[in-house]
Each structure stands twice: as C-alpha cells, then as structure tokens.
Specification:
Its cofactor is pyridoxal 5'-phosphate. Belongs to the DegT/DnrJ/EryC1 family. By secondary structure, this protein is α/β, with parallel strands linked by helices. Helix content is 38%, strand content 14%. It is built from 13 helices and 15 strands. The strands form 4 sheets. Strands 1-9-8-5-4-2-3 form a 7-stranded mixed β-sheet, sandwiched between helices. The protein has a 3-stranded antiparallel β-sheet with strand order 7-6-13, with no helix packed on it. A 3-stranded antiparallel β-sheet has the order 12-14-15. Strand 4, helix 6 and strand 5 form a beta-alpha-beta unit. Helix 3 packs across helix 4. The radius of gyration is 21 Å and the shape is globular.
C-alpha cells in the first residue's frame, strides 16, 4: 500500500541517534537545548520541546492560562487535540466555521463568537497553508484574548514573509512521522513572550521551579526545587531531539521537494473533471504537509474505497472535531459549521511525502483519473 505520508530517514539521522545513545544523556541533556535552538532558528521565536503535538497544545493552553469558565474559539477542521486539550483544562470550546477555499479558521466567523469569556483563539494551518493571522490578531485584540497557532502541519511555512512561529502569541508544532519533519513522536511550543515561554517550560516539566531567584524557600539547600503550579511530564528526550536536529538540517530540502511534488500534482490534475485542487494565496509560502483535493458530485466515499483497493493510501483529513462522540455527549450537534462540513464531505488527501517517486505519483494520478472518468 502506497501511504499518504511517510518519514524520510537517512544515515545521518541514524548516526545522530546512535551518538546520543552512547552519550551520558538520554534525556534532559544538551541535545534538548540544541534542538530547541535549531528549532527557534526556523520558527523565529524561542521554543520548548515537548513529547508530541497534543502535549504541545495542552502546554500552550496551560501557558495561556486557559481554565474553567473560559472559552476557546477554534476550527472544527482539525485533529481532535486542538479542541480536546482545551476541554481537559475546563474550558468551553466554541467552533467557528472555516474559509471555503483554504479550510482555515474564518476570521469573520471567529469574530462572531468571541466575547468577555474568550481566553484564546486557536487557528490551524490546514495542510501547511497558514491561516489569516493579521485578521485573527484583530479579533483577539478586540477581547484581550491569546492568539494560538496550531502549526502541526506548517513548520517551514511563511505568511507575508514572516515564519510560522512569529504569527501568534503561542505556536505549536508536531513532529509525528507523517509531518514535514519528524522526531518519531514529538512537538514544540514557540513563544516570543518570555513569560509565556517560561510557563510552557514549567508545565512540560511537572511545574518544577529550580531557579534560585524564583524559589519561595531559596535557602533550603542546593537540591531544593518547588512546584508553584501543577504541570505534566511532557519532556522530549535527547534521543529524539538528536533526530530532530538532524532532520531540521534537511528542512529546506523537505520543503523544496514537497513544493515540487505539489506543483506536479497541480499540472497533472488541472483538467480532471469532478475534482477541485487546493489553493495557495499569493502572500503565503506553505510547506505542504497534505495535498488535499475535493471530490465533487458526492463521489468522495467511492473514490476513497477504489483508490485504497488499488493500493493507494489516500486519507480523509478530518472529521469535523465536534462530530466525535465525546463532543456530541457534551451537546455539540452537526450543522454548526456548514462550510467545514461541506469541505469534509469532499476532502481527500493524496499521497505526499519527500521520498514519493514521480512514478508513484504518476500511478496516483492515473488511478484517480480513471476512477473519475468512469
């Protein structure tokens, strides 16, 4: 089965991990610091490495002070973690509809839902295409809320010449194997504000405070550490950070290769009836995590089944988040975001990964053409 996504691992990646294994530090060591610095150079803001993308979102919401009685406005066109981690902190999630072309959070729809209880507005850079952060900033400023970017798909992307990582108050990344680079499991939180970054760093390390100037009992002894606010163990070990730094060294190559594959898909599929291709706005330079097409005329389920039967691992990204039973049990109902639901009904992700060969891409295109031509 040709997968829709796959990691790219070289001997240099393997050697970096082996070197870490042979060192004195398997976790909380120098490779964590190095990876965070390497990541900051790409993100444009200081970063805290965490254990996965869901942990990054949970950490970002905690750093923003999200808690009981607060509301978080976000998109339904995302993996459930964007919303569920806010619920787990006691917040009420309000789902705003998406733009019909990018499937990103619609700033106008978000503006209609914010109010005095809004603690955060969280956008998702769907498929690697950044959301409209300048417009979303106006929305959050109007109510004093924190702007959060779920950039799980978008490391390496830019918006109006600015790197993802500088566009929101807090930005989260995911380094799952199908993403634009991988640490196996892993994620990160970026923030330019030292206070937000410090809260994120403490939350991912069980809330531990070790800096003498911050301790309430500084004279207890050199061993002393304190917990001022509860956190979790979301640390990313040196082994995986070593892999991350090795992968970051190839991010430009990853981005260029994905862009070339996207352009080739665009050319080969331009004239296929019953198919709508993804858009790219002029002021955005995306690092494409997904190549999401839309299958028209109600044929998405048929095409999905026939493509997979042909050995091509297409995927659907995503079920609207509030369709999950956990949200239904909280009273959320279908029909809340009609644009997102219409997008979901047609969306299909074609295989896209760095080592996808042109011959395999030709096979994807020929199979899809054949099905839609029936």
């Amino acid at each position: 089965m040709l997968p829709y996504g796959r990691q790219s691992i070289t001997d240099a990646d393997v050697e970096a991990v082996v070197e870490a294994l042979r060192s004195d530090w398997l976790t909380t060591g120098p490779r964590v610091t190095r990876f965070e610095a390497d990541l900051a150079a790409v993100a444009g803001a200081p970063c805290v490495a965490v254990s996965n993308g869901t942990a990054a979102l949970h950490t970002a919401y905690a750093a923003a002070g999200v808690g009981p009685g607060d509301e978080v406005v976000t998109t339904p066109m995302t993996f459930v973690s964007t919303a569920s981690t806010a619920v787990m902190l006691g917040a009420r999630v309000r789902f705003a509809d998406v733009e019909s072309d990018t499937a990103n959070l619609d700033p106008a729809a978000a503006a209609d839902l914010v109010g005095p209880r809004t603690r955060a507005v969280t956008a998702v850079d769907y498929a690697g295409h950044p959301a409209e952060y300048d417009d979303l900033r106006k929305v959050t400023d109007s109510v004093g809320a924190t702007l959060i970017a779920d950039a799980a798909h978008a490391i390496g992307s830019t918006y109006r010449g600015r790197p993802v990582g500088t566009l929101a108050d807090l930005t989260t990344f995911s380094f799952f194997p199908t993403k634009n680079l991988t640490t196996a499991e892993g994620g990160a939180v970026a923030a330019a504000d030292p206070e937000l970054l410090g809260r994120a760093a403490r939350f991912r390390s069980l809330g531990m405070v070790r800096d003498r100037d911050s301790l309430r009992e500084p004279d207890e002894g050199g061993w002393h550490q304190e917990v001022h606010e509860f956190g979790l163990n979301y640390r990313l070990p040196d082994l995986l950070c070593a892999l991350g730094s090795a992968q970051l060294a190839r991010l430009d190559h990853f981005k260029a290769r994905r862009a070339a594959l996207v352009e080739r898909y665009n050319e080969l599929l331009a004239d296929v009836p019953g198919l709508r291709l993804p858009v790219r706005r002029d002021w955005v330079e995306p690092t494409r995590h997904l190549y999401p097409v839309r299958i028209l005329a109600g044929r998405r389920r048929e095409v999905y089944g026939r493509m997979r039967a042909a050995g091509i691992g297409v995927q659907v990204n995503y079920i609207p988040a509030y369709w999950h039973p956990a949200f239904a049990d909280l009273g959320y109902r279908r029909g809340m975001c009609p644009v997102a639901e219409a997008f979901y009904a047609e969306q299909l992700s074609l295989p896209l990964f760095v080592d996808l060969s042109e011959s395999d891409q030709d096979r994807v295109v020929a199979t899809l053409r054949g099905i839609l031509g029936d």
